[in-house]
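Q: What would this chain look like folded?
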Amino acid sequence: MIKWLDIILSFRALILIWILFIIIFYFRSDKEYKPSYKDKYYFKLPANYTPCEMSILINYSKLYSKDIIATLTDLIIRKALFITKIISNDSILSSKSSDYKITRNENFNNSQLLEHETLLIKWLINIIGDGKSTTLTQIKNCTRKNYSASAFKNDFNQWCITANKTSKRNKFFKKQNTAIFIGTVISSIYMLSAILMIFILKRYTGLFLIPISILTFIYSINVRKRTTEGQYQYELWMAFKRYIHNLNKDTELKCSISECKKYIPYAISLSTADNIFDYIDVNYSAEDFAISPKELKNFISYSSKTFQVCLKASDFAKSK
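A: My prediction, written as structure tokens:
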């Protein structure tokens, strides 16, 4: 029995089998499909996704503070929310400080909103604000105490979960139940092999199989792969990003007023907002827009800093 175990549990053979498994697993369950869109640019929104859904597609379901700002900006442009700049005088410092008030549009048809958009309004206006409006200062102040900072993080996480739930309708990613099952089985086999080698064969090279088992399990449960349609959409959005990124650099690229306004929230999540605002500054005047591009850019900058501070504070509170 020991002899057969010694043959079956050959360390070199187990390592070679594991390497072969990882290679096959990667190509079948992790490696993305070959690109099918060959052009450098895509000159319009590739699909009717919200900025948040687009970010989920691009970043494998991860969301960041910039995606909150993108969603807020989109709601402002669609007139579900209004923003007002507030300038207050600090008598002690003899200086002026700026803030922004975010107000719910009571006449907006909320049935047009998706669940994650409704939740964001509820979180910021109803929970942090007074039910009708909130300010960036109020949002920032709600993370000054540990318990409220932890609550902020919980609300952010819930918003991310809701947004991912919404995005499931688009079928961005393949179901990986089989891959997870196979990875778990292989991980268990290698953990069992390590135990047998150490305690029965007294071969302590089996210790090296333990991290292999753990890594295999972690890899298999976290593997993500886009569907063929999801991968195609990803390529289109990357081509759209290149288009926005080069708008103010390539004189042959054009963007109408209505398109610029529509593209701003997506540019925020794509980290190319400055490029589209630079293009607007050169080609259009503030009078061409219902909302001043300069004011909107300032709001984006202020709110970005606010949410970055809030999430850092909430992460710190959670770590205590």
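Residues 267 and 273 are 5 Å apart (CA to CA).
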